[in-house]
Amino acid sequence: MTAVESGTRRLGEFTFECGESIDDLQVAYESYGDFEATEEGSNAVLVCHALTGSQNVASAGLAETAGQARAWWNDIVGPGKAIDTTEYYVVCANVPGSCYGSSGPPAENPETGEPWGTDFPPVTVGDWTRAQRRLLDDLGVGRLHAVVGGSAGGMNVLDWAVQYPDDVARIVPVAAAARLDAQCLALDAIARRAITTDDAWQGGDYYGDERPTEGLALARQIGHVMYLSKTSMGEKFGRRAAGRDAVRSFPADRAAAYFPYREVESYLDYQAEKFVDRFDPNTYLYLTRAMDDYDLSEGYEGDADALAAFEGETLLMSFTGDWHFTVEQSESLADACRTAGVPVAHHVVESDHGHDAFLVEPEKVGPPLRDFLADGLDGRAIHDTVSEDDEDEGEADFAPVHNSLFSG
Amino acid sequence: MTAVESGTRRLGEFTFECGESIDDLQVAYESYGDFEATEEGSNAVLVCHALTGSQNVASAGLAETAGQARAWWNDIVGPGKAIDTTEYYVVCANVPGSCYGSSGPPAENPETGEPWGTDFPPVTVGDWTRAQRRLLDDLGVGRLHAVVGGSAGGMNVLDWAVQYPDDVARIVPVAAAARLDAQCLALDAIARRAITTDDAWQGGDYYGDERPTEGLALARQIGHVMYLSKTSMGEKFGRRAAGRDAVRSFPADRAAAYFPYREVESYLDYQAEKFVDRFDPNTYLYLTRAMDDYDLSEGYEGDADALAAFEGETLLMSFTGDWHFTVEQSESLADACRTAGVPVAHHVVESDHGHDAFLVEPEKVGPPLRDFLADGLDGRAIHDTVSEDDEDEGEADFAPVHNSLFSG
């Protein structure tokens, strides 16, 4: 048995990047395994969750959450798994602005006894990182063995290397990017508009009343399509009609009955209904804004300059079917590391599973991650886009998608 | 001066594919040029409009429409243009179910004197084709020189070759497909959900009251992202903040003010506001359903079987940056033509402009189209994906996007 701890720490006054502060930042977290000091600093591994994730990274956790917030990386984190909790002390913290116990819009504002709602200060990825640093201080953890995370969590990982370059030996941004592109910014903006134009949103002051679930459902569905790939959707659903039992959970016009209710619709509708039960609409606004706002190069001359102070090793992982955080974006990060002199490998995973691959392909994500945590860039299962032969030329050996549907 | 006619024809009882009928189908249309009988039948060219288009294909038309519904292919259709109205008699009809004068949800139901709303029968692409045939009969046009159209209009073109294979000499489906894929079906379903979950929709009975403009705006924005490409959005907007004058036209939370209102958001918001002024929400439901439902092979053993009776020539045009109607989908159509013995060329246009390319790259679309109308597949500006050398093997010479973000 590995030790599991689940709780909330009160960390005192916290000033957000925007300049606003709150009197007592609360951070909900879980930890797995036993903390040990090592030669490199410690055996501590911080895992950063994605947009709608929680601190409950593995099933042993105690958080009362559901869906992708419950044991969301259980195939990767646990005893004997890639991030082995018998070996590492694994910490995952719910980011400020989220809705799983940390300070955020649905949490109680101590001054009023009511939920903060949209009075909560705007939150950035930088705030996530500083809150995690404060939590780790409170837990007695100094230097980390590694910081690992996917998607928006991967941005959080990158920010660790920028804000606390001396505090971490190895970073693993998975399915990440230095910044979102215009297409993703657009889709996130549409998702937020769906929430704020839901009449039930009421300027964000819906707590104790009907929640803007229709807007949040739309936002989630737009996001869900971003997490899948054209190929995976075609293979999983095609154009098939859903079973007879499947019925829409929202209004439709009379003419709709003449046409099939398709499996792909039914799936997205079902997933959205589950999501709105577990997630807070204001939180969706806050966290997508943080993700959209993130730019590795902000305050620096470029991505390489931002990473220059980091003296650890970097493993980047990306997925060929991912159009949210693309292979090209990770390769661009790898180039920035190379320019900055940061030892790096960019491990490209062949997968049709889109952005979701980092969650649903543990057999491909696990081995390089395990070996990197153990042996750094010498890890056996790690492949790099730059082979030794052509390293001089800086040529990547993944097939660049210059003729892809998007970049062609 | 070429003759321009703009009007509405009452075509009598019309039974829709669903089995329901209405007493007096009205079809709004425009025609440009003079009709002439020719050896092949006539100089008539039917142009099929896309989802939100209208009969007002060229600026000479008289329809009081706006945005993409006004003179939507003015760069292609007109005196001296690719579809030369001094040479061809060009007809464009507003499809049944639409909102530019033909029978559809916002049109008056003669029995009640009120708008049909969602009492209007469900509409299919097949209904569009049969209504166009009826209109052309009424106009005295028998056999057509060509049927040309893009996007959903391209599906309409394909349906002409299936339903009336002897009535048309040449077809040009532009940026079309035999059917939509699961990803596009999903996004269309989310768009419809945005409309029907807008409280103002009221089951479709909103005429004379507040319209569900918020839902329609979201639907349009989702569609708009589908029409652009990742590359074009990156180049056009990047992550830039909008100018100081740009303000959101819908509610936002307090925290939003800390973050930039980006150009890409501002653009999509502005376009959506313009769109909701010119388009009917119920029509958006009806026409996306028709597009989603379309399947070339329905009632046949496959796409080739469906096309087998067509004895004319086919020019397919597709665009490398299009992820809504992909190059692969057009190539699959070309294969079906080859199998069916239908003379075909598949002309692939290099463009970063996404699906919109068929509207915004007239200098690339015009020449092959002009030459095809004049000389059929011998047209000089036409390139085919199958070069003469490897025709035996049926190998396409466009770079297949197997390693693309989507299909990789």
TrEMBL record, chains A, B:
EC annotation from Swiss-Prot or TrEMBL: 2.3.1.31
Record-level Gene Ontology MF annotations: homoserine O-acetyltransferase activity
Residue runs in coiled coils: none
UniProt-annotated catalytic positions: S151 (nucleophile), D322, H355
Binding site for substrate: R220, D356
Top-level taxonomic group: Archaea
Recorded GO CC terms: cytoplasm
UniProt pathway: Amino-acid biosynthesis; L-methionine biosynthesis via de novo pathway; O-acetyl-L-homoserine from L-homoserine: step 1/1
Subcellular location: Cytoplasm
Protein role: Transfers an acetyl group from acetyl-CoA to L-homoserine, forming acetyl-L-homoserine.
Homology family: Belongs to the AB hydrolase superfamily. MetX family.
Protein known as: Homoserine O-acetyltransferase
